[in-house]
Amino acid sequence: ARRLRFYARGLFASRLVAGCAPGLRDEDDENGFWRSASWHANYYAWGIATLAVSMLDWPVRACSRGRFAGRTAEVRSSPASYDEATAGELWEKAGAAAGRVKEMGKEMLVG
């Protein structure tokens, strides 16, 4: 089996963003309301923190010339993103889309 890896750079590799993501929500949980409320509270807190990090990431790296938040690290991703069948399908579709763009003679800005 292949090992799928995910990387993040700068503040996005921090424990706040990569380590506190809420993960998948269990729709069939018998604890119902309280577990759902807890998941949603975590989701919104994580979203706000990630938004704050996204506004700070580039200025911190640029002003410190990469001394702060300049590393790229392997991070844990959501459980769904480790599905090899989904990863293979996405890779094939991305390759097909890139081929079509190339065949049409159009340029795409990436990154």
Keywords:
111 residues; two-stranded antiparallel sheet; mainly alpha; 3 helices
In short:
It is built from three helices and two strands; from the N terminus they run E-H-H-E-H.
Question: Please, could you describe this protein's structure?
Answer:
With 111 residues, the protein is mainly alpha-helical. 52% of the residues lie in helices and 5% in strands. It is built from three helices and two strands; from the N terminus they run βααβα. It has helices at 15-19, 32-63, 84-104; strands spanning 7-9, 72-74. It has a two-stranded antiparallel ribbon with strand order 1-2. It is flat, with a radius of gyration of 18 Å. It starts with 6 loop residues before the first strand and ends in a 7-residue tail after the last helix. Residues 103-111 have low confidence and may be disordered.
**Largest sheet data:** 2 strands, antiparallel
Q: From the helix content, strand content and strand pairing, which structural class follows? A: mainly alpha
Distance between the termini: 29 Å
Please give the count of helices.
3
Helix content: 40-55%
Tell me the strand percentage band.
Answer: 5-15%
Number of strands: 2
**How confident overall, as mean pLDDT?**
78
Low-confidence stretches: 103-111
Principal-axes geometry comes out as flat
Oligomer: single chain
What is the CA-atom radius of gyration, in angstroms? 18 Å
H/E topology pattern? EHHEH
Which helices and strands occur, and which strands form pairs?
Layout: E1 7-9, H1 15-19, H2 32-63, E2 72-74, H3 84-104
Antiparallel strand pairs: 1-2
